[in-house]
Write a structure and sequence with these properties.
Low-confidence stretches: 1-35
Shape: globular
Radius of gyration: 29 Å
Strand content: under 5%
Strand order of the largest sheet: 1-2
Number of strands: 4
Largest sheet: 2 strands, antiparallel
Order of helices and strands: HHHHEEHHHHHHHHEEHHHHH
């Protein structure tokens, strides 16, 4: 019988071991696949999350009964993302009667209107719009009609209509009669915004900064100025326009308008700018469905917003 040399024995055993290992199925390792563990989250942190949701979405703290109910629901669901989604969606869309709010949905759209008005109109109250603007314009309508100045009378009537459109935002938006871009078109095109940002120079710079969180480039400013000030045909963001109404339409229908909305939400809810990947992820749908409530839900159910990063 032929006896293998020590070296040949080593080679033989090595080959056998390799063949044996290669026949075994490698275990599949999925990175970052650990299930979230929320058992260590203190009750006070969950209560703070609920409190913050109520304030951010409907403008008030939860009542004791509301806090107890929502806290129990979240804990029973182990603080899952789906349970958070249900609470956020209830505050945005709940139509059951709520004492003092009419409904959560009603309160949510008033809150959103007030936040948007603070962003665009320096927080002017509806009372001020009625008493300091509409009332004066109505007096002008009366005086112009008495004096036979029908041209200025019609201008005053149009300004009243634009202000009444602002006051109707929360109701029309809640009823889906207008979309988010229409909300901001109304907040741009009214006497209050014009008085805050007097003359075309200031109006153009303010509209870019308020909507896009940046000032216009020189080229953008020049084209906008010609369009608004002189009603000259110009092209902005690849779209033609010839007056202030066209300019506003171009601004609120641009892709950058929706990116500006995303940045505003992240700044107000998370106190930071969205990452490039976050902007890309949201914009794949937001630019087309205009559903800012869906974007809010995505942000508000995160561990970052909830402070569940333990």
């Amino acid at each position: 019988m032929k006896i293998l040399a020590p070296f040949h024995c080593f080679v033989f055993l090595f080959l056998v071991s390799v063949l044996t290992i290669s026949c075994k199925k490698d275990s599949e390792i999925i990175p970052d696949n650990d299930a979230p563990y929320y058992d260590g989250i203190p009750t006070v942190v969950v209560e703070n999350y609920i409190n913050r949701l109520f304030i951010d979405l409907i403008g008030r703290e939860p009542l004791n009964a509301e806090m107890a109910s929502e806290l129990a629901a979240l804990k029973a669901a182990e603080l899952s993302a789906s349970a958070r989604w249900l609470l956020i969606n209830k505050l945005q869309n709940g139509t059951n009667f709520v004492q003092g709010d009419s409904s959560y949905k009603h309160a949510y759209y008033i809150r959103f209107y007030e936040l948007s008005k603070a962003r665009m109109l320096e927080g002017v109250s509806d009372y001020q719009i009625n008493s300091e603007f509409i009332s004066i314009l109505k007096n002008n309508v009366y005086s112009d009609s008495v004096n036979g100045d029908f041209f200025n009378m019609e201008i005053a009537k149009q300004k009243i209509k634009l202000l009444e459109d602002v006051l109707a935002i929360s109701e029309y938006y809640r009823l889906d009669s207008i979309e988010i871009q229409d909300v901001y078109a109304r907040l741009l095109n009214n006497k209050v915004y014009d008085e805050i940002n007097m003359n075309t120079f200031n109006f153009l710079r303010a509209s870019f900064n308020d909507l896009f969180l940046r000032f216009p480039t020189q080229s953008e400013f020049d084209k906008g100025y010609e369009m608004v000030e002189y009603e000259s045909p110009e092209t902005l963001f690849g779209i033609s326009g010839q007056n202030k109404g066209d300019y506003i339409s171009i601004m609120i229908n641009s892709k950058e308008f929706y990116e500006g909305m995303l940045r505003w939400l992240y700044q107000t809810l998370l106190a930071r700018e969205p990452s490039t990947s976050e902007v890309y992820s949201h914009m794949t749908t937001f630019f087309y469905d205009h559903d800012i409530q869906k974007v809010q839900r995505a942000i508000l159910q995160t561990d970052e917003y909830a402070n569940f990063n333990y």
